[in-house]
Write a structure and sequence with these properties.
Serine Threonine Protein Phosphatase 5, Tetratricopeptide repeat; 2 domains; 6-stranded mixed β-sheet; two-stranded antiparallel ribbon; 9 helices
Length: 332
């Protein structure tokens, strides 16, 4: 039975590899969500911070203990807010500092746009007492059933960072937000031990904030992603070999084969060749030509099978238009 399982797993892996075909990876530049236009100098402000802590404390059932715990949480929150404000400012400044489009400044007057924002966070504790009956052996050799208690404590931090970009006159250029969360959970024999071993709330908030910095930068400056596009073979060995060349970056050699096959008497070869040529022009950023070929494929196949490809390239065109509204890279 074990040999059969291994054999089936190997067959499954081989199927996945062959089914995937050849794909090509390429780098795409995307515009930010907030397009600032021809602005060259941007000021980054420190963001306002507001938080809420709902933490579990060791229960003493004393009024004075509750008062002290509440006061402790408020002092801790106030101190934490100052640290969070600086933490976000430093990390976001670092994310934006090396961008190639505009300069980041702290100068109160010499700027064309300003990035403002606010941070809200909440940290909530939730615990559960678990009872488990176990048998224990006594000194006399007899066994007895006893109830063991454990405490499961979960601490969750949620953060939302709101950003706004204004020009010097105060007019809003754009606004957006990013929300992230993180959590920790421990199970111990007592609530006290659980509280001792659960992650500190400030660390959880910072972990959640760490997840926001890259998405926030993508809302403010152009960024790159790597994407994969699959090539078709049309069950042709020559097209398949050409696809391998494209995968290795030998696009012109691959294009020659596809052009030879696009007028083949074999419809599957024609479709595959036209499709791969459309992908070629998409990657070369000749987007109108790529769309035209995908549209021809719909006509060739009397279908709408290539509508998704057309939509993808049209979206690229929209992004290219937005990128043209961004300032030229510094030094150019």
């Amino acid at each position: 039975m074990r040999k059969l399982k291994i054999y089936l797993q190997i067959i499954g892996i081989i199927f996945l590899i062959t089914a995937c075909g050849t794909s090509v990876k390429y780098k795409i530049e995307h515009p930010p969500e907030i397009v600032m236009g021809k602005i060259n100098t941007v000021k980054l402000n420190k963001f306002e911070v507001n938080g809420n802590l709902d933490l579990v404390y060791q229960q003493k059932h004393e009024i004075i203990s509750d008062i002290l715990n509440f006061a402790e949480s408020r002092i801790s929150e106030s101190t934490g807010n100052k640290a969070i404000k600086q933490y976000v400012f430093s990390n976001l400044l670092n994310e934006l500092a090396n961008n190639k489009f505009y300069d980041i400044t702290e100068n109160p007057t010499n700027y064309e746009a300003v990035i403002k924002g606010d941070i809200t966070y909440s940290v909530d504790d939730d615990y559960q007492k678990n009872d488990k009956k176990v048998k224990e052996k006594e000194k006399d050799g007899n066994t007895k059933t006893v109830t063991k208690h454990t405490y499961t404590l979960k601490r969750e931090a949620d953060v939302t960072v709101n950003i706004r970009v204004n020009d010097q006159s105060g007019k809003v250029i754009g606004a957006s937000k990013v929300t992230k969360s993180t959590s920790d959970q421990v199970t111990e024999s007592s609530l006290k031990k659980a509280l001792e071993n659960i992650e500190n709330w400030e660390n959880l908030v910072n972990d959640a904030l760490d997840k926001t910095f890259t998405p926030l930068s993508h809302k403010l400056i152009p960024y790159y992603t790597y994407e994969h596009l699959s090539l078709k073979t049309g069950h042709s060995k020559k097209i398949k070999a050409a696809n391998k060349k494209a995968q290795k970056g030998k696009w012109e050699q691959a294009l020659k084969v596809w052009n030879d096959k696009k007028d083949s008497g074999n419809q599957k070869e024609q479709i595959a060749a036209h499709y791969n040529i459309a992908i070629y022009y998409e990657i070369q950023n000749d987007l109108d030509k790529s769309i035209s070929i995908f549209q021809k494929l719909n006509e060739l196949t009397s279908s709408s099978d290539f509508d998704d490809d057309i939509e993808r390239v049209k979206n690229r065109k929209k992004e290219e238009k937005l990128l043209q509204e961004e300032p030229s890279p510094k030094g150019k």
